[in-house]
Design brief:
mainly alpha, 4 helices, single chain, globular
Length: 68
């Protein structure tokens, strides 16, 4: 995760392979905070609908990775 902009671009890309790669590049110590931020993006009212869709896609992939 050398480039935070690239990390977020990948995590919010709605592309499973890019989301997975971004998530796996994230140090374990930061994963809870990032996941909590994605949940906030989905549940808070101030986010643009496209951002909500991107956050939902990321959460779906992240949750699938937990099950694998």
């Amino acid at each position: 995760m050398d480039d935070p902009t690239l990390f977020w671009d990948n995590l919010l890309s709605r592309e499973a392979d890019r989301i997975e790669a971004a998530w796996r590049s994230l140090p374990q110590a930061y994963r809870k905070d990032v996941r909590d931020h994605l949940v906030a993006m989905v549940t808070e009212v101030d986010w643009h609908p496209e951002q909500v869709k991107s956050a939902e896609a990321a959460l779906n992939i992240i949750d699938l990775l937990k099950e694998a």
